[in-house]
Design goal:
Blueprint (H helix, E strand, L loop, with lengths): L6 H4 L3 E3 L2 E3 L1 E4 L1 E3 L10 E3 H13 L3 E2 L2 H10 L7 E7 L4 H12 L4 E5 L12 H9 L3 E4 L15 H16 L5 E3 L7 H9 L4 E3 L17 E2 L6 H11 L3
Parallel strand pairs: 3-7, 3-12, 4-5, 6-7, 7-8, 8-9, 10-11
Antiparallel strand pairs: 1-2
Helix pairs in contact: 2-4, 2-8
């Protein structure tokens, strides 16, 4: 559900108050041999190798709450810190990704489209609740993944407010964070996100917008072809080391 994005455009830092924080973005976690690894797909074995290398290299995850507090206050981000995110509500995020994250002592941020709840091959409400209870962060990815930037008229209640309220009801926890479908945004969308009560939003490949850095946080789309060491090398280019 995402357009492919050239790696060199994506592999740049989230920068707020001069600091840098690697934020990784995954989509489909697949069974080995069922799909070619690329920017939107990584098979389970390769994903496990990437996480193992991160853990062995001393990387640890930080929650969006903690990261944003540090960034806003200009305090140092701990070395070898990252955020690991997942888009589009795939069932494998609960059955494959979350257990592997738990195994390596990591936590994820899962951006959920609420239109897919309880549908085949997508996350169920029970799975979302379980992941939240395990310490993962559940966040919003709109109701049905529209092109927000290209649409002239948008039902913001349906796309921003309703999904947040529904996810909060499922998890029993506040939902503060948002990921733009296709990474698309503009000034009007940022205004609506603030009105809807979101604290921050994640995009994909553009530089953060001055004055709205927390609503244009940048992420790396992790290539499924990358070995664990290649991923660590990419993160070290701009990370907190």
């Amino acid at each position: 559900m995402k357009h492919l994005i050239v790696f060199w455009l994506c592999c740049l830092p989230v920068i707020v108050t001069g600091q840098q924080l690697p934020v990784l973005c995954y989509h489909n976690i697949t069974i080995p041999g069922t799909h070619k690894n690329d920017l939107l797909h990584v098979d389970q074995a390769q994903f496990e190798r990437q996480l193992r290398t991160l853990a062995d290299s001393g990387y640890h995850t930080i929650s969006p709450d903690a990261a944003i507090t540090l960034l806003k206050e200009g305090r140092p981000i701990p070395p070898r810190t990252c955020i690991i995110t997942f888009d589009d509500s795939h069932a494998e995020h609960a059955t494959v990704a979350a257990p592997l994250l738990q195994h390596f002592g990591l936590r994820g941020v899962f951006f959920v489209m609420t239109v897919t709840l309880n549908k085949p091959r997508y996350l169920t409400k029970d799975q979302i609740k379980t992941m939240a209870d395990q310490g993962h962060v559940i966040a919003s990815h709109t109701w049905d993944h529209p092109h927000l930037k290209l649409t002239g008229v948008m039902d913001w209640q349906k796309q921003l407010v309703g999904p947040r309220q529904q996810l909060e009801k499922i998890t029993g926890r506040p939902v503060w964070y948002f990921a733009y479908p296709f990474g698309e945004y503009n000034d009007s969308i940022i205004v609506e996100l603030k009105k809807a009560g979101y604290k921050a939003a994640f995009q994909l490949n553009r530089p953060p917008v001055p004055g709205n850095e927390l609503y244009t946080l940048r992420r790396i789309m992790v290539d499924g072809n990358w070995s664990g060491s290649r991923l660590v090398e990419a993160m070290a280019v701009y990370g907190t080391q």
